[in-house]
Design brief:
Blueprint lengths: L3 E10 L6 E11 L4 E5 L6 H8 L7 E6 L2 E2 H15 E4 L13 H11 L5 H14 L16 H13 L5 E5 L7 H18 L2 E6 L2 H7 L2 E6 L2 E7 H6 L4 H10 L1
Parallel strand pairs: 3-8, 3-9, 6-7, 7-8
Antiparallel strand pairs: 1-2, 1-4, 4-5, 9-10
Length: 251
């Protein structure tokens, strides 16, 4: 059984002439410990898929399940239970943090919300998490505006890992970073996946970025999945015209 399973998922916005199909009978899966790349241009439906997986939006039809349980049903019955197992890293790292709070507070916040540990154990866990993502202990006392973009995204990754989730949803997690910093964050995610065995749904408009990190790849275009398969196979011998265009644009 897949850890994450989407089956015939449909999602539309608007109506009439302004109706937009963001997901058209989308079926895809992420296995335990697997990194699946979801790639497509802006407006292809990638972020809608992320929101459906995280339970931030409801599908019009079809099912989104995690560990064999319907995500929407899980949220109604045990929202904290699902949030402990599925976490996200988004595009703008600065906006994800409270500008008035030091970094240590932001990393510890999920532990406080879920009532895990006491003050001392949380402090130790924060330092451990910062170390996991290659940040020094003194970062914990700094404010977000005092950090670089790469450091901020590392903080967000540390925060997402605080609850030891089984799935990390990365929605354009490196697109706001310089190319050299992108490579550092991607390598960090690969290292964490190998060390922790965490599964990832990695979403990006940049097929070169997805190629670097993913085991398998799903290509979307206007709400449809137009290609899927092993990453090397999709990039080396794409069957769809849209996948070919994305690959050519990235080379």
């Amino acid at each position: 059984m897949a850890l994450l399973q989407l089956t015939d998922v449909e999602k539309t916005f608007g109506s009439g002439d302004r109706r937009t199909v963001a997901a058209n009978r989308v079926t895809m899966a992420v296995g335990e410990g697997e990194i699946v790349g979801l790639v497509g241009e802006s407006g292809s439906g990638k972020s809608t898929i992320a929101n459906l997986v995280l339970g931030l939006q409801k599908p019009d039809s079809g099912t989104v399940s995690f560990a064999g349980r319907d995500v929407q049903d899980w949220l109604r019955r045990d929202q904290r239970g699902l949030r402990r197992q599925v976490q996200a890293v988004f595009q703008q790292p600065l906006l994800a943090l409270d500008s008035r709070r030091v970094i240590g507070w932001s990393v510890a916040e999920p532990l406080v919300i879920h009532r895990i540990g006491d003050v001392d154990t949380r402090r130790a866990r924060v330092l451990e998490l910062l170390d996991h993502v290659g940040l020094s202990p003194e970062i914990a006392e700094r404010l977000p505006h005092q950090l670089s973009g790469g450091q901020l995204q590392r903080v967000n990754i540390a925060r997402a890992l605080a609850l030891e989730p089984r799935l990390l949803v990365c929605d354009e997690a490196v697109s706001a970073l310089d190319v050299s910093v992108q490579a550092q964050v991607l390598n960090l995610l690969l290292e964490l996946q190998e060390r922790l065995g965490i599964a990832m749904l990695f979403i990006s408009h940049d097929i070169a970025v997805v190629r670097h990190i993913s085991d398998s790849m799903v290509v979307m275009y206007r709400g449809d999945i137009v290609e899927r398969g092993d990453t090397d196979q999709v990039c080396g011998n794409p069957r769809s015209e849209h996948a070919r265009v994305l690959i050519e644009a990235s080379s």
